[in-house]
Design a protein that fits this description.
This protein has about 270 residues and is of the alpha+beta class. The protein contains 8 helices and 8 strands; from the N terminus they run αβββββββααααβααα. It is about 55% helix and about 25% strand. It is rod-shaped, with a radius of gyration of 41 Å.
Amino acid sequence: MESLIAIAALAVIGYMIGSVKVIPQGEEGVVQRLGRYQRSLKPGLNFVIPLLDLVFYLDTREQILDIKPQTVTTKDNVTFDVDAVLFWKILDAEKACYAIDDVEEGLKNLVLTTLRSEIGKMELKQTFSSRDEINRALLKQLDQATESWGVKVIRVEVQEIKLSDELRRKLEAEQIAASEKRAKISQAEGVVDSIKLISQALQEQGNTKQVLKYLLAQEYVKSNVELSKSENSKIIFLDPKSLDEAVTNLIGIQELEDQGGGTGNREV
């Protein structure tokens, strides 16, 4: 009799222990009774029916999903590798347990599909300057698609765009050519502005002849200095008398035009 009482007492104690479930903070439990969803268990002390209730534990903290590099193709048919990182968390334990078989695998495939779709709408150069736009588009579409899974996508970021060595060299060459082009345009604009300023200054000065002689002499000296820097250069010295005559002729033409007020042909 005592043995039976002891066995019964142990059974009761075991039943009571088995009915107690302590859920840690940051997790939730899903109770399945006889194959059907019964309820969700919140963090803290909970009671279930042993042998009838089966408990699944889910982590409800924010989690990180690292997407390995995948091959994508842009609108202009350029192929490269890109990877991303996804931050997400479970909001509804019941949906996360029953709406999809594997949440992480589903998120991974959804990110890859959406990423290929968004980059496929852009040209290569846009992908470098539009990362924020890509991230926002990914976040919007993923958040909408995962709502039925009881999952919240907090943020998604494209980490690195990996180009082939050949493509990288090509882009660098294009950037160098574009920089040189901008430099030449800027230099040409500077020359034009200088000519305008000199022309305006000459019109305002009364000693036009002396100013022109100074500017030509300055360019003459500068040209000789530049030529002297090269061993293969041939230095040609201009006769100062000829330089003075050239300035005199230039001034004479200008004075005749100012006196005549026209643009007809003249012989000097």
